[in-house]
Amino acid sequence: MLSLGGGGAKSTKPSFVSYVTPEEIKSEKEPPKKEKHPDLLPGEVIFCSADPVLKHTQDDLSQRGIFGTLLCTNFRVSFVSDETPLEEMTQHFKNKLYGENDIPLMCVDNIYGVYDEKKKLITKGMLKNKCPSKMIIHCKDLRVFQFCLTYTKEEDAKKIFQGIAHHCLEPKSLKCVFAFSYAASSSPEVQRSQRTVMFDSKEDWTQEMKRTKANLRIVTENENFEFSMRLPKFFIIPAAVTDEDISKFPGKGLPVWCWSHHSGCAMFKASTLPVPQEDGLMQGYMERMLHAVAHTHLYSLKLEDLSETLPTIQDIQQSYNKFKQFFLIDNSTDFWVSDVKWFSTLENTGWLDIIRQCLQKAVEVVECLEKENTNVLIMEEEGSDLCCVISSLVQIMLDPHFRTLTGFQGLVQKEWVAGCHAFLDRCNHLYQKDKECHSPSPVFLLFLECVWQMVQQHSPAFQFSETYLTVLSDSIHVPIFSTFLFNSAYQRESTMKAEAQHLQRGPLNCPAVWDWSVQFDCKAQELFINPLYADKLKQDKAIRKVPRAKHQRQLSLPSSAFKTPPKKGFFKDETESLKKMLRVKRISRWMASPDSPAAATREFYETWQRRPLDYHGLLLPCLDGPAMRLWMQRYLRWIPEVQILGGGPVAITSMLAELLSQVQDLRRELDMRSCWETEAESLQLRPGPLALTRTSLRLSSSFPFASNRNWTFKPAIPTSLLQSLMVTDRLASQEDETNEVISLV
Amino acid sequence: AILRSSGEMYQCSCSCQWNPDLEPGALIFISCLSVGKDVTYICPFVGALRGTLTVTNFRLFFRGISRDPAFVLDLPLGVVSRVERISGASSRGDVSYVLVCKDVRTLRFVHKQPDDSLQKSVFEVLTKFAFPVSNSLPLFALEYNQVFPENGWKVYDALAEYKRQGLPNESWRISKVNDHYELCDSYPAALVVPVTITDDELRRVAAFRAKGRIPVLSWLHPESQAAVVRCSQPMSGVGGKRCKDDEKLLQAIMDANAQSHKLFIFDARPSVNAAANKMKGGGCESEDAYQNAELVFLDIHNIHVMRESLRKLKEVVYPNIEESHWLSNLESTHWLEHIKLILAGALRIADKVESGKTSVVVHCSDGWDRTAQLTSLSLIMLDSHYRTISGFQKLIEKEWISFGHRFQQRVGHGDQNHTDADRSPIFLQFIDCVWQMTQQFPAAFEFNESFLVTVLDHLYSCLFGTFLYNSEQQRVKEELAKRSVSLWSFVNSQVDEFINPLYVHYPAHVLLPSVSIRHLQLWVSYYIRWNPRVRPQQPVHQRYKELLAKRAELQKKVEELQREVHNRASASSERAGSPTRSITPVQTFV
């Protein structure tokens, strides 16, 4: 009998659990002093190290743990265990750059010191203080490490503590980021991700225009950033914008093309103009821009100022800061205490609501493009934060191309990287403290959250898996990739050039994050692919339109009564009023329809929902309260109390993998038997999926993450049951049986 | 799954136009009300819908006019908890009434009072046939006579189930002491007790346990011989009364398991409630009297708290959901916290039995509500057999139906007294807990979500006899198996609909779910299924089924090819070398 709870399973637990103090160990055997460090990356240098350090195992309140060496390099904080890890646990998903006991410096979120049982946040000013007995590191990928320094020699402890704190908390300059030492020392033959469109050449943009059948004007004058440092080298604007206007306000207020709908209407984004001066110069300029956008298709335009309707980036930052605290859990007691008021605390952070608002706004824009065929211009102060979120979401909803893996990567390149999202400032890679001018904010993560909501609602429509999104969100904080390192295309190019000159060598080769082989081998990369993806090529015409799964006794709702009345405020068919409105100082916003905008899109959603679901057509998210979910894989993967052994999504993944491989074997067999007929088609076979099935019973729900954490097979039993539910009602004290049993006739 | 219900009769209709979906030959009892008096259904999602309303002795049927496809509402009358007339809604003689349902919805109809006073008003017919018990009418299940290929009454046989567990054995015997339900009228006839305890001793124990529900075996671990035992509270009272025979019985239960010298007694109640019960003669085992036994309270609240929690939940989810405060509203119902406590209790029981190899005794006050939840859930965790469709049916038949969960009282079949304090969604909570486990272990259960919803629908529908009455004794007396159809007859006759395509049978795989509230979700496709915006999300199952079909298709093709190759080989001597073009083109799409 395979007993998951039995002692037999426990005996295979490879991790070393110490019941003796290191003094005892040392008195027994003096370990030969040998240099212990992780396999260093090219360009990686060790700053300091300390030994022995006790790393607490997180799933335990007691002081047990593993002894090892703690190091700090220019890339990471690393813990190397004294124990040679048993190779029994096959790692399905190993990151080649850093292990599970490594923390890239950029990934460190906060450091706490425990002084006399009190936990204190370590700030820059506290470095000179005495060394804490315990150091707790909270990571941006939600890991929590606890290192006990009491067994370490005092000076070593002090050195490592100050070293880590210094390298993680002090502001640095961009050129100190590890990526440059890495790029300088690594072999230059880092190949460019083959199929992702990078949108850094004219061809990429013209190709994208062709793909969406757009007929607009491509601007090439900014190739050397002479004209704006906040715009990409190449960008596309409405055909009607004059040369004179392009250079009027360098880059500001210029409608930059995002995407064209097949009907001909298009979506543009723009930064807002500086505060208007008394002359009508700016007003006239803005009017001409709006006319140019409106001219793109049917002389229609919808203007949306995102800063008026969506939370500010500061709101986003604040909300996320509150939100993430609930996943950075130091011990079991805290976990169960926070379990009690879980839903209301989650709601109070507002994070899920911000996600909803962004999706909601995107649906509103989609409605304009899809239903009204109106051009849309979204605006925002910088034009590169929420504009990126909304425009990317709109494109994912409307264009199935962006739901493929390479399409999605191209989208991130187009809207975020080329679109000059200020990754460096928003992610605060350099630990700048003057938050006023740099405004750190997890805007890109917010976008990934929104995409995740779509993925979990309509998984067959997406070629990539949630694991892909989780890994992508982790990669933001790995200082190797050029993708998330810069504020703009200009900064990228100038910094790279300067560094190359400094090193006196040819162009630096910083890999893009899309070079997944830098982090994962092919086998691990298979987990990025959603095995359920309803491939367009492979789908039968007949079953392409999946009939919606019928509800159990679902009320059937007819479609006829859902004709939405034409909304007011659209400029289409109202050329006169358009002209009038444009002359007015303020430009039309979303016209308040009789109901709230939420109610209006509700109708749009419901009409869409009643049609058969086409995974390669328009895709809308459900925004009702129960539909907005927590990204469990990202946020709960390191917490031992919530691991489900033998369960979770991996149970399905492994089943699917097995079935898919069976189907493929059969196909291969058929191909072999009739090879002359299907030679060409046999090339379409997907790579063989992972053989997880045999081990799936022992995999935890956090798979593929935390695979060497050796979750105990003990069930997590709440510690604070009684206080969890105080029903003070009189009902609680009532007897179960109110009256004597009356039997039924 | 709309059932054709034989034995169904027309009771009342507001229109002749309706073509009844009745079995041919069903007796039309009362003809229609006058034509043209249309009824309006006030749908909370769509608005007012005009149509025709029909009431039979089994169901209420509403079909909207002027829509394509027609709007249809089909509701078994058993689901109705209360019918309320709203008077003075309008001066034009309109009648408006509200149907509050047990399945978390409320329906509202408005119709013109028929002129012909001879015709019965829909309202009167509704109140009569929705509550047959209160009107001295038989429940519809006793008239329903549909024949199914499978006979669900044969699903569970107590002796066969005990035999599957290896019982009787050298430590446990099957006692006939309750053969005529004299020892305990709410227990089944077959009881498994330690061999060392005589029937006389059992009778003395029965006097000491509430309602005579003595400690008997529910499940035996196939390897460690650790047992799950269920009972009701001891009647120790304020004075701390003791019973030598009861102490001996618990000692015998401990001794039957050689692996452990300890016994865990799980009292499902909060300790405060257990103490309060002493005032009424009840209480809990004292560790002085029961040596080597450890008493653990699981803090699960009583039926009244649970009823109130569901009432609040209904307010939050029906008809409309307040988006911005959804989570805190959900929290304020405490529904998921109760689910968490029940699952946590079952997890602790399963853990003690599996990892601790210790026998456990589970009880609450009477041992038919919380105890049934805890034992059945821990059994699902421990024994993979109960995760199959037939095993799950047996589990319900055994732990719930035969051990006297008071379905009649808790659901209130056909009873118009909707404020009855004995009603409580205990069984619903159990199914909810099972659903939570299916979410955490998507491949461990043979049945799908639709199966669980179907079970709950027919808990209320009064179409099948399965959930009628309070005890085995009553069911035997009423000859329920002869006079009604079992729900499992229906289910097992179309079992394909209820199969989870992802199911893998891992024998002896113990499930230890996470009971953190972070992993618990509201069962949207049950509680919020009436909301048209909430779409069932089973694309995975859908795609998986497609893949299964593709595999079957390919397998067939491979077999065909093999046959062809075989045929060719036998005839190859003449036609060597010429490629056969007759092979069907291979479709390589998935």
Automatic annotation (TrEMBL), chain A:
Residues 23-38 have a biased composition (Basic and acidic residues). The gene is MTMR12. It comes from Pygocentrus nattereri. Keywords: Cytoplasm, Sarcoplasmic reticulum. GO terms for biological process: locomotory behavior; phosphatidylinositol dephosphorylation; skeletal muscle fiber development. Residues 1-38 are annotated as: Disordered. The keyword Cytoplasm applies. This is Myotubularin-related protein 12. Its main location: cytoplasm.
Automatic annotation (TrEMBL), chain B:
Its EC number is 3.1.3.95. GO terms for biological process: phosphatidylinositol dephosphorylation. One of its GO terms (molecular function) is phosphatidylinositol-3-phosphate phosphatase activity. The keyword Coiled coil applies. It catalyses: 1,2-dioctanoyl-sn-glycero-3-phospho-(1D-myo-inositol-3,5-bisphosphate) + H2O = 1,2-dioctanoyl-sn-glycero-3-phospho-(1D-myo-inositol-5-phosphate) + phosphate; 1,2-dioctanoyl-sn-glycero-3-phospho-(1-D-myo-inositol-3-phosphate) + H2O = 1,2-dioctanoyl-sn-glycero-3-phospho-(1D-myo-inositol) + phosphate; a 1,2-diacyl-sn-glycero-3-phospho-(1D-myo-inositol-3,5-bisphosphate) + H2O = a 1,2-diacyl-sn-glycero-3-phospho-(1D-myo-inositol-5-phosphate) + phosphate; a 1,2-diacyl-sn-glycero-3-phospho-(1D-myo-inositol-3-phosphate) + H2O = a 1,2-diacyl-sn-glycero-3-phospho-(1D-myo-inositol) + phosphate. Its main location: cytoplasm. Residues 152-527 form the Myotubularin phosphatase domain. Keywords: Coiled coil, Cytoplasm, Endosome, Hydrolase, Lipid metabolism, Membrane. Residues 569-590 have a biased composition (Polar residues). It is a peripheral membrane protein. The active site is at C364. SUPFAM superfamilies: (Phosphotyrosine protein) phosphatases II (SSF52799), PH domain-like (SSF50729). GO terms for cellular component: early endosome membrane. It holds the Pfam family GRAM. PROSITE patterns: PPASE_MYOTUBULARIN (PS51339), TYR_PHOSPHATASE_1 (PS00383), TYR_PHOSPHATASE_2 (PS50056). Residues 565-590 are annotated as: Disordered. Belongs to the protein-tyrosine phosphatase family. Non-receptor class myotubularin subfamily. Regulates the level of these phosphoinositides critical for various biological processes including autophagy initiation and autophagosome maturation. PANTHER family: MYOTUBULARIN-RELATED (PTHR10807), MYOTUBULARIN-RELATED PROTEIN 2 (PTHR10807:SF42). This is Phosphatidylinositol-3,5-bisphosphate 3-phosphatase MTMR2. It comes from Pygocentrus nattereri (Red-bellied piranha).
